[in-house]
Task: structure prediction
Amino acid sequence: MGIFSVFSKKKKEKLDESLEKTKSNVFSKISRAVAGKSKVDDEVLDDLEEILVTSDVGVSTTLKIIERIEQRVARDKYLGTAELNQILKEEIAALLAENDKGELLGFDFPKRETPYVIMVVGVNGVGKTTTIGKLAYQFKEAGKSVVLGASDTFRAAAVDQLTIWAERVGVPVVTQGMGADPASVAYDTLQSAVANHTDVVIVDTAGRLHNKVNLMKELTKIKNVMQKVIPDAPHEILLILDASTGQNAIEQAKQFTAATEVNALALTKLDGTAKGGVAIGISDQFKVPVKYIGIGEGKEDLQLFDKFEFVDSLFNK
Result:
C-alpha cells in the first residue's frame, strides 16, 4: 500500500460511494481531455489545470499539482495518458504528505486526567449540529463518555436539535435555553464534565455570519470562560465546512482561521456533491488539518479523514 493507509473494507466502500459524484465529474472531464492523445503534453496539462480548478481543488493547489506533473514529464521524458490517473494520485498524495502538520487525537485516545474539550464553530446550514451528534456517537462507540453543551443559544432550534441528537446517541446535554449566555452554558458543561469524570466535551456555538466581529468576540469569551474550569481548554476548535459549497468553504476557512484559533476542520456533505475536490485544496492551503469528513446522513457516517485514502478513492477507477 505504500503511503496509502489501510482502511477497513466497509469504511473504504463507504468512502468510494460518497465520492462517486466527484469521481464521475473528474473522470469524464479527464477522459475528454485525453481523447485521441497518447502522451501527456502541454495541451493535456492545460486541460488538466482547468479540470482541477473547476473541480474546486483551487487555483493555488492546482498550480502546485501541475508543476509536479510537469517535473515528472521532464524527468521521465514520456508519460502516456493511460497513466494520468495514477500519476495524479501519486503526485497529489505526495503534495499533501509534504504539508502534513501531524495528527490530532482520534476517537480512541488514551485516558486523560481532564476531559478533552472540543469547541465547534461554523456558519449556519453547514451541518454543525449533525456533525456534533455524529462525533458524540463515534466517541461513545470508542468507549468514551461524552457530554454536549448547547452554547448556540441564538436559535431555539439549535438547542432543540442538539437535544434530539443527544437523545438519539444516548449522551447527556447541558442546556439553558434560547437567549442564555453562551459562555455560561459552556462553563456549566465543563464543570459537569469534570465532576463526572467525562472523557469528551463537545460545545456547540452560534452559527451566525463568519464576518461578524461580535461573534468572534463571543467565541473568545467562551474560550476564556472554559479556561476557568480547564486551563488548557478547548483542546480542539473544530470548524465545520460544507463541501458542497466548493470555493465558499475555502473562503469561510480563511475567515475563521484568521479570526479564531481553529486547529481542526470537518467537511460535511461529501456524499451529495461533485465538489469533493475541495478537500484537496483545503488540506493543501491551510495549516489546519481536515480531521473529519461527513459521508452520509446516518450517525455512523463520519470518518476520520485520511488524505491518502481519500486521493486513492478519488483517482481509482
